[in-house]
Amino acid sequence: MPLSYQIFADQNLNVVRYQGYVRAEETLEVFYTYLEDPDFQPNQLQLVDLTHVTGAQVDLEKMLAMQAEKVKRLLPNGGRIQMMVLAPNDVSRAMASLVQKSWEPFPADVMICETSQADALRQLGVESENFATISTP
Predict the structure, then answer these.
(1) How far apart, in whole angstroms, are the C-alpha atoms of residue 85 and residue 111?
(2) β 13-22/3-8 pair status
(3) How far apart are the C-alpha atoms of 112 and 93, rounded to whole Å?
(4) Which of 97, 84, 20, 83 is nearest to 51 (CA)?
(5) Taking all residues of the chain, what is their mean pLDDT, rounded to a whole number?
(6) Mean pLDDT, range 70-86, rounded to an integer
(7) Residue 119 pLDDT level (bands cut at 50, 70, 90)
(8) Quick one: which of 3, 9, 10, 122 has the fewest CB in 10 Å?
(9) Cα–Cα dist 112/37, whole Å
(10) How far is CA 42 from CA 74, 77, 89, 100, 104, in A?
(11) Between the CA atoms of 101, 106, 108 and 110, what dihedral angle is there, to the nearest 10 degrees?
């Protein structure tokens, strides 16, 4: 599963893109890489793009443990995680529902956008038509 992230520091935004089959281990591996990125900041907005997901390894216990670890790292001083999940098709919507459910026990606002990159960005307060046109300094 190709998985990537891109930080837009001036927008306080991290965009995570999944493709193919999702595995928890790869997600956690990329998450730790993200934490080491010089542009990482706690409390960044998170936009998770599931548009090109074809399936997933579903283990709710493992997902809950992973989310608990993310909360420790993303919210060292409290607050709430703000996350938008882009899920414009049936497969991605099913995965987005699992993602949303896995965050329920934690301080997170997880929204699902079923339309477009522009709508997902706008709902996070970022004015851009797509990921490619997000302004950077």
Answers:
(1) 6
(2) antiparallel
(3) 8
(4) 20
(5) 92
(6) 92
(7) very high
(8) 10
(9) 26
(10) 5, 9, 30, 20, 20
(11) 0
